[in-house]
Amino acid sequence: MPSTHQQLLYHIVFSTKNRKPYLQNEQFRTDLFAYMAGITKNLDGFALEIGGWVDHVHLLVRIPAKVAVSDFVGRLKANSSKHVNETSDSLHKFGWQEGFGAFTVSVSQKDAVAEYIKTQAEHHSRESFQEEYVRLLKCHGVDYDARYVFD
């Protein structure tokens, strides 16, 4: 076959450093998520949905085959935290946690995952980020050691 064809969607989740509620301001979140969509585009990816709550972010993204998920997330975090630290007077030493969760998403489920990401405020009225993240790990069959899930 002379060319490569793929359709890989990822649901990526990560937290602010020490789960600090840096993302409390709705306008700040909106601006940050738009900036992250731009970073994704610059990395030759496509953001179908970006959302989150006060201490974490969810992304539904398409990443090109030539880019490893860990490289994509590392560059996304580095560029977005640098942007926040350079442009925000109110946030000091903004950063993301070291790790992340990445889960593949079937094209048939992309709308459901996008809706889930859009409605984070509703989800977190009844479930903490820690509970949500552990539930996602279990739902996707990811083995984990509870001692090392959160920083």
Structural overview:
The protein has five helices and four strands; from the N terminus they run E-H-E-E-H-E-H-H-H. Helix 1 crosses helix 2. It has helices at 26-42, 69-87, 110-118, 120-123, 129-139; strands at residues 9-15, 46-53, 56-62, 101-105. The mean pLDDT is 92. Strand 2 and strand 3 (56-62) form a beta hairpin. The chain has 151 residues and is α+β, with helices and mostly antiparallel strands. Strands 2-3-1-4 form a four-stranded antiparallel sheet, sandwiched between helices.
Beta-strand portion reads 15-25%
Name of the CATH architecture:
2-Layer Sandwich
Assigned CATH class: Alpha Beta
Q: In the residues, how many domains can be counted? A: 1
CATH level 3 topology: Alpha-Beta Plaits
Overall, the morphology is: globular
Termini Cα gap? 45 Å
The number of strands is 4
**What is the structural class?**
alpha+beta
Q: What's the mean pLDDT score?
A: 92
CATH superfamily annotation:
Transposase IS200-like
* Alpha plus pi helix count: 5
The largest sheet, given as strand count, sense and whether it forms a barrel, is: 4 strands, antiparallel
Name the poorly predicted regions: none
Which percent bin holds the helix content? 25-40%
Notable characteristics:
151 residues; 18% strand; 4-stranded antiparallel beta sheet; Alpha-Beta Plaits; 40% helix; 5 helices; alpha+beta
Topology:
Blueprint: E1 9-15, H1 26-42, E2 46-53, E3 56-62, H2 69-87, E4 101-105, H3 110-118, H4 120-123, H5 129-139
Antiparallel strand pairs: 1-3, 1-4, 2-3
Helix pairs in contact: 1-2
